[in-house]
Amino acid sequence: MIRTVVDIDGMMCGMCESHVNDAVRNNFKVKKVSSSHGKGRTVIESEAPLDEGELRRVIDATGYEVQQITSEEVQKKGLFGGLFGK
User: Fold this and answer.
1) Cα(66)–Cα(9) distance, rounded to whole angstroms?
2) What is the mean pLDDT of residues 9-18?
3) Which residues are within 8 A (CB) of 75 and not within 5 positions of it... i.e. 6 or more apart?
4) CA dihedral of residues 56, 59, 63, 65 (deg, nearest 10)
5) Closest by Cα among 2, 3, 8, 32 to 20
6) Are 24 and 58 in contact (CB under 8 A)?
7) Are 2 and 45 a contacting pair, CB within 8 Å?
8) What digits encode the pLDDT tens for the residues 35-45?
9) CB 29 within 8 A of CB 69
10) Are the CB atoms for 46 and 1 separated by under 8 Å?
């Protein structure tokens, strides 16, 4: 699982979060996407790495400005994560 964190400038409310989340869901195959206007951040979980240039283009097209993108591979946690994680 890949966790991609996108720092975004310009989100001011819950509708802004929804706008970014919908844009990501409509353009990428993701497991989960969650935005926080308070933190100015969107966290995306996907099976494969996302194209950062395309991600930047899609979010910028919504009217918000991408500041930084970081990605890391994460292991599933939880009851069965340790037993069946791979």
Assistant:
1) 6
2) 96
3) 1, 81, 85
4) -50
5) 8
6) yes
7) yes
8) 999 999 999 99
9) no
10) yes
